Amino acid sequence: MPLSTDALIKKAYTGTTTSNLTQIIPQLWAAQMEQNMRRRAVLEQSLVVNTDLMYPNAGDRVFIPALPDITSADALTEGTDMTVYALSNAASIPLIPTEYGKTISITRKALDRIKYDGMSAIVDRLAYSMSMRIESNIASLYNATAASALPNAQTVFGGSSVTTIPTMYPNGHTTSNIVSTDTMNASMLSQAVAMMQQYDNVPMPDGNYWLYMAPDAFQALIMDQNIRQDLRYAAPDRLINGDQGVIYGIRIILTNYIPTSNEGASSAVPVRNNLLVSPRWAAIAYKRRPEVVVDPTLYDMGRRRQFGATADFDIELLHPERAIVIKTAKQF
Amino acid sequence: MGITNPDLPQNPETQQDLLEQLLAGAAQREARKVAEEQLQKGSVTKAEFSSALGEFKQTMLAELAGLLQQKATSPEQTQDTDQEEEEPEPIQKAGRKGTIPPAQDPRDANPLQYLLQKARSGGDYDETDKQIIWALTVRGLTAGMSTADVDGEDFGDR
What we know:
The structure holds two protein chains of two kinds. Chain A is 30% helix and 27% strand. By secondary structure, chain A is of the alpha+beta class. Chain A folds into two domains: 22-67 and 88-141 and 283-317, 2-Layer Sandwich (Major capsid protein gp5 fold), CATH 3.30.2400.10; 153-281 and 320-329, no CATH class. Chain B is mainly alpha-helical. The interface between A and B is large, with 38 and 39 residues.
């Protein structure tokens, strides 16, 4: 006959003390923290995720190789040695995790009031806080300069080297003259796909490039007459059910973390920096996955306890030529 | 003298001889009958069987007592013997069977360990799990907030 809940709780208490409960509590809530983190990992899915540093005594940095492309294979002659191709500008990008965290304070009155669901809601908020940090850091790579060790001899633009992600503006405009009517449109997508293919970028495993787009940019795109015609005749179900789906070989993914920059005349035009990416464009390395931590100290004469979430990670741009920033005027 | 049987001899000595003859004949017939019954049942009598069984019992008890004493005095040698034997001894086998506890719910056996393992494998908690987790969480977070709490106290004593 199974034990009653009261008997189970009494049995679970056996051997526990204040000090070891502060270690047990994070373990009990780790699963929920992890589930929340993965559910909200939208941009992170396009990155190289490295967990080598999470092994004990693994150090505080990891090096991820960033190699240049090699020219086409030579035609060989019998009896003649092959010409050796030197990877002279090969590089390794160091990822050095730093600490991130968010702490909250909870009163003993609140602890009297909340139950499992209340604590669960707090863990949800802590996980969300950490997700916002990770996703924002990834999205902010749109104007990052690649690490100095990155090979600068890439010839994707006819000989010019690339150290930041290339950008595209609608209607032939630039950062200095973009206007508020330069919204996302079908032409931008087809041009972006053509550019990615000219860069010899392979698509993601699902066969598409992934475009992380702001919701207002998607709204402008869906109102473009060319897109509407394409959807009407090619994929009417997609037009109706609202699935962002795939168009022109681009998988459209909406996210709220697309950063905005002020550009145009007098920097008066808010601009969305939508990211079109292919594999290995960036990487994230974890030293510690996000976890709940409990501060054993009591505050305000024992009326408050503090606990929160911490993580150690680093996010770096690996290959700027493997992504494109599609700049569009912000709608709302 | 009353009425007498004219066919019977009237001499008392003659009567005594006749009675003895009758008894001897009856005894012979009964002995023959018993012998025939014994032949049908088998050649072993109850007394013989009881005697043989008693001897067998005494021999077995003596051997078992000797074996148990040998085991108690030299466990290593007994272990070697067990390893050499293809089958374990019936007495020990029966004893081990008796010590196997009935199947128990892993949560009942050690609720804390059960929940920690469940947390590592995805944390698919049921309602009872959640109540235990909350009890542990609130116990840890409120520890020391009351004057009744003493740091380092084993909560199992409460």
